[in-house]
Each structure stands twice: as C-alpha cells, then as structure tokens.
Amino acid sequence: MLRDFRKVIKSSKGLTGSLMIVLSLAFLAYLGTAFQTTHPDSPEVVLARVYGRDVRRRDLNEAMQRMIQQFGARDNLESMMPFIQQQALSQLMNLKLTEELADRHGVVVTDAEVRDSLAAELRTIPLLLDANGQLLPVAEIRSLLAQYFNVSLKNFEESVRSNLIIGKLQSQAAALTPIDEAWLNEEYRARNEKISFESVSLSPATMAVPDPGDEVLDTFLKASGDRFQQGPRRVLQIVSVDQSNFGDSLVPDETTLQSAFDAKKSGYLEIRASHILVRGTTPEELEAAQEKLNKIRAKLVAGADFASLAEAESEDPSAKANKGDLGWFRDGVMDKGFWDGAVALNKGEVSQPVKSMYGLHLIKLHDRRDRSFDEVKQELTSEIINERFSAKAKEKLEQLRKRVGEKGDLSAAAASLGLKVTNSDPFSSDAPTVTGLEAIRSLVSDAFSMSVGQVSQIVSASGRFIVYRVHRELPIAVPPLKEIRTKVLDAYRLEEARNKLLTMFNDAEGYLSTIGPIEVKAGQTFAEMSDFADNSLARQTVLETPAGSLTKAVWTKDGKLWMARIKERVPPAPITAGQRTELIKDIQSKESMKLLEAELKDLSNKGNMRMGFNSLWGRLNGIYVNDDALKSRTADPFDE
C-alpha cells in the first residue's frame, strides 16, 4: 500500500496530489501509532523493515523453529539461541530484499503460479499421493509434512514463491545479457579444447620469512596506506563466572545423588535389540512391507536364524555388517515408535511389524538392563554440578546487572561481589569472534547492535557465564602496530614470500624442473582445471599460450604460483547449433546470477545507510532492525 501511495504522489498534480499527500501522511501517522503501542513480545511486533516490508516476531519464531529442527537435539541449544535468532532474521530480511528487487524489476508472481508450482512440488513426494496418484487432502498433507519432514505447508509455499521470484529475476537478467562471438568461442574452447601440459605449482614459504622486527613492520604498515584500516572498533568490559568461583559448594553429597538417582531411575533402562527393516512411506509401500515382514516372521517362528535373515532381507544398509544388531540403547536414541515396540517385548521375543518414520521393522529383544547407582554416579554428579553452577552463576550475574543498571560501569559492582572485570581487545564488526570468547559466535554482531555503555544480558560461554558492557568505540583508523602486529607480520611474510617465489619462477629460464616437482596432465580442458575457478587471467594465459611454449606464472585460487609448458592442443569440433544455444543459455544463467547478487548487495548497502526506523523515510525505504524489540528478550520460538 505504501508503494502505491508513492506512485500516486509522484503522478498527481494540484489539489488531487495535495489531498493524496495528506492522506498518505495520515496513514503513516496511524501506522506509527500502531507500531508504538504494540507490546514488544507480541507476535505482531515489527522486528525489522526492509524497504517497507515488515518482518514480525511471528515470522522470526517460525523461521527459528525450522532452524532448530535442522540442528536437532543439542546440549548447547540454549546458548545457540542468539546465533539462531540472528541467522533466522538475516534469512527473512534477505527474502524481503529479493522481493524489493523483484518489485523494482516489475517481476510479479501470481497466486495461481504459486498454487500450480506448489502442487507440482508436492506431487514429487510419493507419501503425499493417494492410490490414484492424486494429492491427499490438505489437512493430511499438513500432517505428513510436519510428521516426516518437520516443515509446514505454509513454509513449503513460501519456499516455492521465493524460488519463482528468483527464477523470474534470473530469466529477466539472462535475457539482457548479450553474448558476442568472441565470448562464446572462448567459452566453447575452455570447455572442449583438449590440452596436454606439464606444470609446477608451489606455495609461498611464508614461515621461512623471519620476523623483521617492529621497525620494519611499522614502516611496512605505514607504506600500506589504508590496507590495514579498520572500521569502528569496540572494547568490552567483561565479567566472567566459572565453576571455580563457587569451589566445593557445587559438589552434591551422597544423599542428594541417591535422591536424584531414584527420581531418574526409569530413564536408566537400556535394551539390546536387532531388527529387520523394510522401507516404506506411502500406504502401498507400507502394505507391501507388511506382507514381506509377515512372511519373514513366519520363517523366524519356524526356527530361522534372525541374524541371517537380517543380513539377507533388511533394507538397513548397516545390516550387511552388523546383521541387524543395534547394540545397547536407551529411550530417545531411536525413533519413538521403534522404542515403544522394542521395550514392550520379552527377552528373546520377536515383534509383529512395528512402524517408524523409516518403514516397518521386525524387532528381536536380546536383553534389557538397568544401570546401577554406581554406574551413573559420576554422570549424576556432573549433571548436578552443572545445574547448581548455572543457577548460582546466573543469580550472581543478575545481582551484578541490577547494581549497574542499563548503562552502569561494571568495575565497582563487580568488586563488591568478588568478581573481576577484564577488557577485551578492540574488535571490528567484521571480526569472526572476540579474542578469548570464541565460543560465543554471535558476540560481535550483538555487541555492535548495542549502544556504547549498554550492559548485556547474561550469556552462556562454553563452561562459564558472562555479562559484558560496551565500554567504548574507537573511530575508523589504521590501528597502531601493537594492536595488529600479528596481522601485519602475516601480510609482510606473505608479500615477501610471494615476491621470492615470483623471482624464482622468472629466473627458471624455461626449465620447470629447476623450480619443483613436475605434474603431467593429458587431454584436459581448462574448465576441468579446478585450481583456477573463475580466474580470467589464468584462462587467457592457458588458452593463448602456443603449444611448445611456457605460460606466464599465474596464481591459483588456493594461493599457489603455477606455470606450465603446453605440450599439445586438440581443437574441439565445430560448434553445432544446439550446442551454441545451450552454451549461450548457460553463460547467461551464470552471468545473471552474478548480476543479481551484485544488485542485491548494492540494494542492501544503500538500504543500510538510511537511518530512522520510525521516520517517514524509514516507513518507505531503507533497511532497519528494531533493536529494542529484539532485545526485550531473545525470541523463544515455542512461546506462542
């Protein structure tokens, strides 16, 4: 709607245009009021806006659920939630950015197109078809997608719509990519001309270059201009709590351990079983699997060996090696249907066919055992220590946060609680991690989304908990040598080593054997020379060097210097009309993707330059993140 208002305003004149401007502003004022009164935890609160397209908390929660299902069960899932939230939000914003690009290019995907493509995609999944090959009712499709693929029908539809948009954008860009004869011929040669050559490739010996000392490195740094310039860098005040802060108070006594064991005793049952699997998902496949397993079971009842039949009949690939034996396992390891079927058996008994997500199984229970108190005592001790540590650490750090408030200095409050404050090394927004806190993958982005002076929530950090404060921000500058000495030394060594390697290649006077080990290749196309990827200089060098001559020295994608003597060339057969058409399509497809990626990057860069989430400009253009709403809590996708 906002986009429609913009178009009307641009085209209207006089009284009509003035009226539309008033209406537009009134509409925007209404939106602003509605946004401001939305509770930060509401599913409808706007968390980000991409050129007027809103990402709401419900959208983020759904995306996070999908990511959590992909990660599966993990012990550190709670500590990963900030990272999952960041990745999910980024995906949603990229999708909105693609929609904006499509709008600017006049690309439209209709509901009918989405419906037809969705139906076509669903028909490729046999589980979703009835006996006549027709799609099952929508309610059944929703249930099956959720049960077997952990995805909703809505998610499936959104994916189809997104693919249609990208496909249309790519087709449009491809049609606008002219391919001249020189380009076509070079690409055809690169893919089809057979070349035989002998070559040498060597890596720069960076570690053989000695550390020249601070004086040389400082000169190198100053001569490099803006090569080492870094954007705004931040320094954090950090308070860290680990188990050493609480000493022996975390260790449980014997009575506590025994009580914990008694409470969890039912969970320590383990069983050992073997199985024979016949795969199936559709009703027809499951019916055939049932019939096959009934026949196999009859043989087992008559005295046949389970292991031999598992090796011969089971469709579990591991059965050839383990003869169906799954060893010892506990509840939660196997599919729930499989566990329920196995645990209900008596020792030595073979089940009726049991259904799991993989198909149908015959299960033979070999044995069951309960782990004793002594067997699990150490495991229980670790669990209780971790639980107590987590509670005590969070309690102490919460006291710290209450004493310092939203933007207080951590030093005095930490000292009063017996805690130490350390300062991080300066880091930029593109740093992979903060030194010493590498386990917190989202820390850099989180720290740069906070204002200077702001105090963080409690963060889990690989065996400890921390609270940090954005202490200060350093301006854009080339840092002093002492801050980036390792980086400068690495760059100096690489440059020196590369120069020495180039000199050695140039001084070889045509004798490759004096450089290093020779590798011989016969009948290879340039397209098959994976070391060069999209290196246009290497392509030109290899294709233009005459047979019997040395190529120029060129760098491979993994940083090696490469040189070859071309021994023989076998020109390709003349290109046919069909090959020409397909080659043009392929080139255009690849170039269109590069073009779209560049456009999306440019659109993103320009959008991120706009300021003011709730401004008039922020309603219509730019890219914004509602930090206040995001930080009201780390989104829990299972709250709703």
Explain how this protein is built:
- The chain has helices spanning about 1-10, 15-35, 55-70, 75-105, 110-125, 140-150, 155-175, 180-190, 215-225, 255-265, 285-300, 305-315, 320, 335-345, 375-405, 410-415, 445-450, 480-505, 535-545, 575-605, 615-620, 625-630, and strands at about 45-50, 55, 195-200, 235-240, 270-280, 325-330, 355, 360-370, 420-425, 425-430, 460, 465-475, 520-525, 555, 560-570, 625.
- With about 650 residues, it is of the alpha+beta class.
- The strands form four sheets. Strands 4, 9, 10, 11 and 12 form a five-stranded antiparallel β-sheet that branches. Strands 13-3-15-14 form a four-stranded antiparallel β-sheet, sandwiched between helices.
- α1 runs antiparallel to α2 (about 15-35), α4 crosses α7 (about 155-175) and α9 (about 215-225) crosses α18.
Q: Could you tell me the strand content as a percent range?
A: 15-25%
CATH topology of the domain at 254-375: Chitinase A, domain 3
Q: Rounded to an integer, what's the Rg over CA atoms?
A: 32 Å
State the name of the first-level CATH class of the domain at 254-375. Alpha Beta
| Shape descriptor | globular
Largest sheet: 5 strands, antiparallel
Count of runs of 4 or more consecutive helical residues: 22
Architecture of the domain at 254-375, CATH level 2?
Roll
Can you tell me the residue ranges where pLDDT is under 50 for at least 5 consecutive residues? 1-37, 634-640
Question: Care to count the β-strands?
Answer: 16
